[in-house]
């Protein structure tokens, strides 16, 4: 057993996970154990620096095609007031658009010269439609969203209303206003075929909404899946804030590894997605090479060292909104190393890698009549602020979308996932077992046993 494992075991024994409030004695013990962990992992400071250096990463962009799609055109960005919105507006402003509009519910963190900033709440369907009619954009980048997984579990109504119904409002208004191209900002968490988590489920449902609009054939649609963006990192902000306040730094798990990308890469990915937008299918774009995953434990230790070394690390356990372990069939080992890690086993067979740094997956439209039927009721409950009702309807709709997605998948893909998960079947969580049962339900039927037939039976069959 390594020294790290020994110290983590002591942490779990002396200050068990799941505590909201810690005694002074527990805090002192955590300070001591955290110092031991830093000694056992002297490279944690380097991991923090490697993580911060990701902010300088870029990817190649098809400049000529992008300039042709932007120069002299009217461009609108929803949610342009945040970090990613500003990075995208920087890129767009340099391409000489005829008009560049940012429409957000909050003021801009940093205004980009040449951009017209407007206030818009995408939950307001009439306001979205009016804005589209007034400005008649040629292309729309839809970034507006509630992006915190933890907050999504506490603010279910706002998250679902914004991320699902707000996305529907933008997509349908763009279609009616004659927008040529629509780019949707999704998340790597949406690669999960199903999840009970509100944030990930809402973004997956947002991808479905774009797929339905794309299938109409009137607007070319694409999407991007972002992973952890260093420039607006919720985790880093929390760690540093806790250290400044003298609070303990809380970790979900010491084993967590995650991919990261920069805000500039994210903006460049959206520009690439603009020229990948097509009819009549949604085309999802992801960065192919996201580098080596970041260790959450080393990142936290690096921040505690940065703060002066007196901070305490506490393995608190997973909070609502964050998945503890992925479904074993999420990746196909035969394909996972060849494509972006934000592409799941159901999507990987269709992945296209013609771009230098970006993988593209054309998404088959998934008929989900139960989900479609529930949307008006979901909107009514959102407007009324009925959290219990929203959660109930949203959960049922998300499950229906998963079932219909598996039903529409090729038999060979479903069979492959069933084979991948079979060795793990007896260790699956209740949620993953429920998913696995659906894959098994839609696997290829076993062939009937072959028996010898007499001549009369063979003749009857041939007829």
Walkthrough of the structure:
It is a single chain. The chain is α/β, with parallel strands linked by helices. It has two domains: 282 residues, NAD(P)-binding Rossmann-like Domain (Rossmann fold, 3-Layer(aba) Sandwich), CATH 3.40.50; 52 residues, no CATH class. It is 48% helix and 13% strand. The chain contains 17 helices and 14 strands. An eight-stranded mixed β-sheet has the order 3-2-1-4-5-6-11-14, sandwiched between helices. Helix 5 links the parallel strand 1 and strand 2. Helix 6 packs parallel to helix 8, helix 10 packs parallel to helix 12 and helix 13 packs antiparallel against helix 14. It is globular, with a radius of gyration of 24 Å.
Write the layout of secondary structure elements.
Blueprint: H1 3-14, H2 24-40, H3 44-53, H4 63-70, E1 74-78, H5 83-93, E2 99-104, E3 116-119, H6 125-135, E4 139-142, H7 149-154, H8 156-176, E5 181-187, H9 198-215, E6 220-226, E7 228-229, H10 234-245, E8 249-251, E9 257-258, E10 260-261, H11 263-276, E11 282-287, E12 294-295, H12 296-306, E13 313-315, E14 358-363, H13 369-384, H14 387-408, H15 411-421, H16 430-441, H17 455-462
Parallel strand pairs: 1-2, 1-4, 2-3, 4-5, 5-6, 6-11, 7-10, 8-13
Antiparallel strand pairs: 9-12, 11-14
Helix pairs in contact: 1-2, 3-12, 5-11, 6-8, 8-9, 8-13, 9-14, 10-12, 13-14
